[in-house]
């Protein structure tokens, strides 16, 4: 497969430029919000509420993009969907670059969010359908690897670039993706579903090489292709509703284990531990994510998906429990405070606790949590949902999963303060720890091991079970 895989890797590289763009969108707000909060232009200056919306409004756009992507991926195909999503990426950044007021900033963020939602759905489907089973895990994990690489790239570039120039830089990956994808094939499974057998053979020839058993693989795919459309009554079929429920719950757990909440207060925690340059602290966190996601990509086809979810869940459960312990020790009288803001509470805590002897616990917890998430619950759910859905339900099922993910991301990020007010900060992180433990139970009983299986065999597993 070494020679044959060269063009497969090229097709994967072209596709993962989409998640790279997606990562730049997520990372863009971190260096930009502090700059806009100090802007000399009163029309562009963000207050606390506006800054919060500038960061989180992307998730609402992405939720809409997930619905749109679920429609596009089945109607126009995987390749064309990826090419089309570069348009809202570029236009979104153009609006941000030309912004004269806060509402233009919001509109640009929504457009880039819509593109991110389409990308987060289409790219895993494209890669899973063009990949050989022996390397599908590694190539599928590259989606999350490129997302965190984009986040890190935005953090690093944000140290030196002003916000308009950073937007110019962030628009480049989507332009390159549009160019590269125009030379890549559509997936053989989509082509066969459209009765385009000769084009499917040509796509397989590009992806596998002329000396591979193209006819054999084509017949194997054809056996699993069902040309008829999907109607609502077919969701009674276990081969459709079981993988759908599995995917939705995976996306739910990915968010309620606390990743967005932890990342939201990362700079606060580093500053409390005497890391004066919070932007460099963000780069450190981003680098941890990239390193451990790369490790996952290298080992996932050997260890399997479930093992990594187990290891990741255990590390995240322990680290969020440590977070809770940290806040319990730093804020022993939090229940008497009327202000639920963690930053305010940390600054007003007893001086006896404001020293490096206790702050190291928060920094270690943060590093462990980010590493644990990157090892499993970051990349693996996206890979699994790209593998488990039957072809005819892939668009609508993937759309439901992406919608769940982004709605939960919005709720966890936006309502985090309310959780702290109701449960206290340590109670909130212990709740996250409990969700991590529940995710382990769910993995054990309901997540299938898809390592080394063809997509057709995975579909057969759900049909027979």
UniProtKB/TrEMBL annotation:
Keywords: Cell membrane, Glycoprotein, Membrane, Transmembrane, Transmembrane helix, Transport. Residues 7-451 form the Major facilitator superfamily (MFS) profile domain. InterPro entries: MFS_dom, MFS_sugar_transport-like, MFS_trans_sf, MFS_Trehalose_Transporter, Sugar/inositol_transpt, Sugar_transporter_CS. GO terms for cellular component: plasma membrane. It comes from the Eukaryota. One of its GO terms (molecular function) is dehydroascorbic acid transmembrane transporter activity. SUPFAM superfamilies: MFS general substrate transporter. One of its GO terms (biological process) is D-glucose transmembrane transport. Pfam families: Sugar_tr. It catalyses: L-dehydroascorbate(out) = L-dehydroascorbate(in); alpha,alpha-trehalose(in) = alpha,alpha-trehalose(out); D-glucose(out) = D-glucose(in); D-fructose(out) = D-fructose(in). The keyword Cell membrane applies. The chain crosses the membrane at residues 51-73, 80-103, 109-127, 139-157, 163-184, 244-266, 278-300, 307-327, 358-384, 396-413, 419-447. Insulin-regulated facilitative hexose transporter that mediates the transport of glucose and fructose. Facilitates hepatic influx of dietary trehalose, which in turn inhibits glucose and fructose influx triggering a starvation signal and hepatic autophagy through activation of AMPK and ULK1. Also able to mediate the transport of dehydroascorbate. This is Solute carrier family 2, facilitated glucose transporter member 8. It comes from Chloroceryle aenea.
